[in-house]
Amino acid sequence: MKQWRAVCSVVLLLIVQGCAVNRIGDNLAKGIEDNNDLVLVGEGLPSYLLMVDGLILTWPERTSLLRAGADLYGAYAGLFVEDPDRAATLNEKALDYAMRAACSQRSDYCDLRQTPVPEFEALLAEAGDEDLPLLFTLGSAWAGYIQTHSDDWNAVAELARVRALMERVVTLDEGYQNGQAHMYLGVLNSLLPASLGGQPEQAKAHFEQAVALSQGRNLLARVLYAEHYARLVFDRELHDAQLHKVLEADPEQPGLTLQNVYAQQQAQRLLDSADAYF
Q: Which superkingdom is the protein from (predicted)?
């Protein structure tokens, strides 16, 4: 854990010396994203979380720090926490930070969960390029929250708001974060089969666009394509082809390395269970 204490010390020293707090918030998540050691990150990330909590206590309305907190808590809950109750608690904190970031950036975003859907969509229609990072962080944190609160119908009812956020991200810049908004929309459209109101063909199009926009570097897009679409429509050939491509790829890609290493683990898990599923 010494290396993580050193990172914290350096960051705090830079703050004392007058380094821009916005830049610190933006760079915290990047250092995690480019690490290829899931075990190291899993053991060390709680130190980052505690540090971000402390920074936010000092600068409670700093949008970049609140966004960093939302991203880091969401990533930790999604990648490293298996206990469902703990994951739910961490995702709740991620969403709280994301909502606070939204409010700190735009005062008309301070009550988004209670805003009627038509007004919510109207607010999103006014969002510009400068709001793009916030919209993506908010949509990601909200999706994670709903996933770990799926037994709460009030939470599930908010899926339409997550969809609207990601659709606005796609409209503003579909290539943002290697097309990951398309990845989220792919999952949202494949939650149910077509017979129950799902939209699997739209899901397929979103997954394929996510892969294309990242030039195949976003390996998690292929894993989710296999898990959520190919399994939904019982396409074993597509399922296995996507997962083999993931396992054959180089996971070390700027901004995607940690996620890609995790994707390769999940690809192997899905292949190992394919005979039983299909």
A: Bacteria
User: Helix 2-16 and helix 38-58: axis angle, to 10°?
Assistant: 30
Give the type of residue at 86: R
CA distance 54 to 60: 10
Position 256: which residue type?
Answer: L
Counting residues of the chain whose pLDDT is more than 90, the rounded percentage is 71
pLDDT of residue 47: 87
> Side chain identity at 175, as an amino acid letter?
G
**CB contact set of 73 (below 8 Å; sequence gap of 6+):** 49, 90, 91, 93, 94, 97, 141
Q: Is the pLDDT of residue 187 over 80?
A: yes
The model carries a pTM of: 0.86
Which own/partner pairs from 45-54 qualify as long-range (CB within 8 Å, at least 24 positions apart)? 45/72, 45/75, 45/76, 45/80, 46/76, 47/1, 47/4, 47/5, 47/7, 47/8, 48/4, 48/7, 48/8, 48/72, 49/73, 49/76, 51/8, 51/11, 51/12, 52/28
Classify 1-173 by CATH class. Answer: mainly alpha
Instruction: Parse the chain into domains and list their residue ranges.
Output: 1-173, 174-278
Q: What's the CATH code, domain 174-278?
A: 1.25.40.920
CA distance 69 to 96: 9
| 1-173 and 174-278 have identical folds | yes
The token pair that represents 66 in the structure block: 């609140």
**Burial grade of 114 (CB within 10 A; 0-12, 13-18, 19 or more):** exposed
